[in-house]
């Protein structure tokens, strides 16, 4: 019996429901079959619900697939960077990019994470409330900028955050749109998008210029490392390629962490027992006497809490794959051009694998407790050759920021404020989240 099931609702209805509320659409499809055919005709589209098929697509038969539509849309902004290149070019870039996230570098980055978070703690003092989404976005943007460029963005961080946000919003709108117009078509959205790209690009090229003129100031930064890299061909990485990688990090390297942090502080406000255990753990750790990496390694419950938040609110909530040749998956045959949509937000809520899936239960990820979770029932950082290369950076950053802010403050949900998931390129909270600040 085939494990591919046809959806029974009309195509137009499916399309309208997807456009209106993508997350609800995928949740509604979760029990319709291991793979659900949307019966889209010439170019078949499928929703993948089974962890077995997720593994088959992302890992086992990885070479049969390309990112497809995602690449086409993202390339308009970031060019040919690690997030958009395919096959051999992606392997080439990943090879020189990986040392950026080696342990000794992460130790160095951790100092920046701690330093900038402490500055935020000071600015929140005596304030009654804040837009937590904005605060986390600006904090992680400053951190990634210092790590990449050794550049102090204090004066320009709001402008830069706005440019990044506009770029992400326009990219998300295009990604979910049925028709992709060329970026040179002068629509209102395209004008906003191009202006935002120009701001980011000008800053990056100026920093590349400064790094070449004063290399000693950029030795421990990502841009400095790339300028020093010699490829297997004996050539250096071009300025354009460095620009593409820096755009990738600016857009993908901070917003995901910012959104995750906002979601975690929100669910803590809704779960007092979890918050109590979190505070007990971080209060028992010396943030001054130990290195940031040692602090991170000792925060076991905080890490569980982060993993559970990644289950409920995975920043990379949707993965696209397109078959670039006919492929057989677990006995099912799919033709070239077939598109597969893998929604981690929905799959992470499968009640057969995660009892009471809507509840925030960090103990699901306690040592030994997650052994019964099937492979790829949980995949917040993707999998296979396209898994997130910076996941160790993101995990350490999230845990350290939680610990430093959590030692000083807790946040409370303001009456009337709603935390509605907003599935853009990353999973945001719609219109941000205002929270009451309470000093501990």
- Going by helix content, strand content and strand pairing, the class is alpha+beta
Strand proportion, as a percent range, falls in 5-15%
The side-by-side strand order for the widest beta sheet comes to 1-2-3-9-6-4
- The gross shape turns out to be globular
Describe this structure in words.
β11 (about 420-425) and β12 form a beta hairpin. The protein has helices at about 10-20, 20-30, 50-60, 70-80, 85-95, 105-125, 130-150, 155-175, 190-215, 220-230, 240-250, 255-270, 270-285, 290-300, 300-310, 345, 390-410; strands at about 5, 35, 45-50, 65, 130, 320-325, 325-330, 330-335, 340-345, 410-415, 420-425, 425-430, 435-440. α7 (about 130-150) packs antiparallel against α12 (about 255-270) and α9 (about 190-215) packs across α11. It is globular, with a radius of gyration of 22 Å. The protein has a six-stranded mixed sheet. The protein has a three-stranded antiparallel sheet with strand order 5-13-10. Strands 7-8 form a two-stranded antiparallel sheet. About 50% of the residues lie in helices and about 10% in strands. The protein has one domain: Cytochrome P450 (Cytochrome p450, Orthogonal Bundle). It has about 450 residues and is α+β, with helices and mostly antiparallel strands. The model has no long low-confidence stretch (mean pLDDT about 90).
């Amino acid at each position: 019996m085939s494990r591919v099931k046809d959806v029974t609702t009309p195509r137009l209805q499916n399309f309208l429901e997807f456009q209106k509320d993508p997350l609800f659409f995928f949740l509604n499809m979760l029990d319709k079959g291991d793979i659900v055919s949307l019966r889209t005709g010439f170019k078949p589209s499928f929703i993948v619900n089974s962890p077995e098929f997720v593994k088959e697509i992302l890992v086992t038969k990885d070479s049969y697939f390309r990112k497809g539509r995602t690449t086409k849309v993202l390339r308009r902004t970031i060019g040919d960077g690690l997030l958009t290149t395919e096959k051999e070019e992606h392997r080439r870039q990943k090879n020189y990019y990986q040392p950026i996230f080696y342990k000794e570098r992460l130790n160095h980055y951790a100092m920046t994470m701690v330093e900038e978070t402490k500055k935020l703690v000071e600015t929140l003092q005596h304030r009654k409330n804040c837009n937590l989404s904005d605060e986390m976005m600006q904090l992680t943007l400053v951190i990634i900028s210092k790590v990449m460029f050794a550049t102090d963005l204090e004066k320009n961080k709001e402008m830069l955050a706005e440019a990044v946000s506009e770029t992400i919003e326009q990219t998300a709108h295009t990604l979910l749109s049925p028709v992709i117009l060329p970026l040179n078509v002068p629509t209102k959205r395209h004008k906003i998008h191009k202006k935002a790209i120009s701001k980011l690009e000008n800053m990056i090229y100026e920093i590349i210029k400064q790094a070449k003129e004063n290399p000693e100031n950029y030795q421990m930064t990502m841009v400095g490392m790339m300028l020093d890299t010699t490829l297997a061909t004996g050539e250096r990485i071009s300025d354009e390629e460095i620009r593409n990688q820096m755009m990738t990090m600016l857009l993908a390297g901070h917003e995901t962490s910012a959104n995750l942090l906002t979601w975690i502080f929100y669910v803590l406000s809704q779960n007092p027992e979890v918050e109590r255990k979190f505070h007990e753990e971080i209060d028992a750790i010396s943030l001054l006497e130990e290195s940031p990496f040692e602090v991170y390694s000792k925060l076991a419950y905080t890490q569980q809490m982060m993993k559970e938040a990644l289950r409920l609110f995975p920043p990379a909530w949707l993965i696209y794959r397109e078959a670039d040749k006919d492929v057989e998956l677990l006995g099912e045959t799919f033709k070239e051009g077939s598109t597969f949509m893998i929604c981690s937000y929905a799959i992470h809520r499968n009640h057969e694998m995660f009892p009471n899936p809507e509840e925030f239960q960090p103990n699901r990820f306690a040592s030994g407790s997650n052994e019964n979770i099937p492979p790829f029932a949980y995949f917040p950082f993707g999998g296979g050759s396209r898994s997130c290369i910076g996941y160790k950076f993101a995990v350490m950053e999230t845990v350290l920021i939680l610990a430093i802010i959590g030692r000083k403050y807790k946040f409370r949900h303001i009456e009337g404020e709603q935390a509605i998931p907003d599935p853009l390129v990353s999973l945001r909270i719609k219109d941000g989240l205002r929270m009451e600040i309470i000093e501990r």
